[in-house]
Amino acid sequence: MHEQTSATPADSAPAEGPTLFDWEFATDPYPAYAWLREHSPVHRTKLPSGVEAWLVTRYADARQALADQRLSKNPAHHAEPAHAKGRTGIPGERKAELMTHLLNIDPPDHTRLRRLVSKAFTPRRVAEFTPRVQELTDQLIDAFAAKGEADLIHEFAFPLPIYAICEMLGVPREDQDDFRDWAGMMIRHGGGPRGGVARSVKQMRTYLGELIHRKRDDLGNDLISDLIRASDHGDHLTEAEATAMAFILLFAGFETTVNLIGNGVHSLFMNPEQRERLQASLAAGESALLETGVEELLRYDGPVELATWRFATVPLTLGGQEVAAGDPVLVVLAAADRDPERFADPDTLDLSRSDNQHLGYGHGIHYCLGAPLARLEGQTALATLLTRLPDLELAVPPTDLRWRGGLIMRGLRTLPVRFTPRNN
What we know:
Blueprint: E1 2-4, E2 16-19, H1 23-27, H2 30-39, E3 42-46, E4 52-56, H3 59-67, E5 71-72, H4 82-85, H5 109-120, H6 123-128, H7 130-144, E6 149-151, H8 152-157, H9 159-169, H10 176-188, H11 194-215, H12 223-229, E7 231-232, E8 235-236, H13 239-270, H14 272-283, H15 288-301, E9 310-312, E10 316-318, E11 321-323, E12 328-331, H16 333-336, H17 371-388, E13 393-394, E14 416-418
Parallel strand pairs: 4-12
Antiparallel strand pairs: 1-2, 3-4, 5-9, 6-14, 7-8, 9-12, 10-11, 13-14
């Protein structure tokens, strides 16, 4: 599918832009994004779903758009007919009555819900969870360490955040494999038929509603119980709001971390000198390079390629383009975080990069609530893998790897690795 570019002087750019959203693009979208940044930084295109939207690719424009309250998160502002709205957002969330979460609402409702949820999802709670994340990480590695080979996506990067967020939410152990199955359906079908995802969303919503109802009579020390307790001047989350919030914390909290770990390990394989630096730092008992390194991996090839949907509520100008009221706007985080106007040598992985105001967790009022948990899981996963399996290497040629097609997320389908077998 060839794209027409936005208005560009005929002598400064080719008549046609790059091909977007095919499998070749999914493998390495960065050259196409570099072209768009230079020639058509706010670019009108037709997405694979048939929806027309603006892609924002320069850092300065992206940062502005992420914080611009004229760009609404509420799909009700979409100018297309109602039937088209089902092609934006999370498949099935509308039918499952899961729309009242932080990714779909604006102030003042967003302000109220975020304030209530923040009372439950605190940095202190994440810090208290650190030993359990380490325990889960070690258990998953124990399961394949003696084999000398593994698929790091399905055996490690995928189950770690699922089990972690389930435990934080208070999902009983005996039910967590159901969540793993539903989440697996979302990942497998993320770039394909939306029906499979919608069925999983419906099953998850039904389960969470029942779990919240049960917990109201037996509150525990978990995130769902805290959501139920959360109040502000007598204002509580309704059961529908608590269900939608529990759902989005799970949905947004697992695939991002799967891709953070998978993309991060892949980037280290492709940049062996950076990997050696990190392993030497870990062996010396240092943490500084690990901390800056995870932020750099988020910038360099992050888990979220495009920020979630926004819709213009009024006509506005963005990056020199006139955007009509009702138009969808998608901020391309992957393009903004490689903008040479903001980052020196942006296509170079530098784990010690200090000036790294990347947009991987967003910006403004919708900045990712789960960023502390994602950082904890990413740092723990990478440090433990590289320490326990120091000779870890890719088991197939890099050209054999396949990236999942999709619009918002960027991640590998599989990541086969091999290493010297180790007894637990």
